[in-house]
Design goal:
Length: 307
Amino acid sequence: MAESILRIGTRASRLARAQTQMVADMIAAFGVVTEIVLIKTTGDKILDRPLADAGGKGLFVKELEEALLDHRIDIAVHSMKDVPVQMPEGLGLGAILPREEPQDVLISPHAARIQDLPEGAKLGTSSVRRSAQVRRARPDVSPVMLRGNVDTRLSKLDSGEMDAIILARAGLKRLGLGARAVNALPTEEWLPSLAQGAVGIELRLSDSFATQAVARLNDEKTEIELICERAFQAALDGSCRTPIAGLARYDGKTLSFRGEVLAPDGSDAIATQFSIDIDIYGKSEAARAGREAGEALKPKAANWLAL
Ligand SMILES: NCc1[nH]cc(CCC(=O)O)c1CC(=O)O
């Protein structure tokens, strides 16, 4: 019966496929038959410029959401940091997997820490957040445009085109490249992207078969962290050119959050933080606290949010 096969949509990058295979294996262990469908997204097609210049958010996600709405796939596996907070009508998250370590890592033959990069070093990134953070820490270091998937970026570093790159530790580990992910940037000095390190599963909210097939994959602690982070992001409502960073940590008792909006040139930054005790059912408290943190920061960061 066709409807008993769960069709799983993913981008074709090696990282996206690794994450999707992990999800498919877990679902198969519950006795559900799966099929993986590769879908090319705008973010995979545009490789010659920063995605902030390509006009928008969700460029790794949109075609997957269209495939869900067209019933070409039943679930979509995403890196949650690429997923806009507003989802199309009828779609929602069916599960959020246990979070991998959320930090960024510095990869460079010259230095293990940002402070130790050589004077005037060329750092490859196309992220507005990472560029602003580098300029803030090291005004002499120039971010240079670097697009492409993780393997492409590593090979450009290795060929000497750049002196350093910054990547998410989670992606490197999932690709079996943990050996390159040793120099984590401490979150006290360098906040990651909101939702970094978390993989989520999107589905049609009306699809009870898919909903049941993935429900057991959900990690409630990660879910609380992401509810908080995404509420912060939604309240700020920045543009794709606004450097925003933040991280929530929840240990089953205390939810701690720090978030930051930076001037794109790194000349300034505004941060906020809180710590509250909530229980594992405290989703609405997590959302409210995240939203209030975003609302408190919003007027102070207004110039950078409207870019
Ligand atoms: N924007 C691309 C992207 N989306 C998710 C990850 C890493 C995996 C994750 O954060 O879950 C990456 C690569 C990177 O930033 O190094």
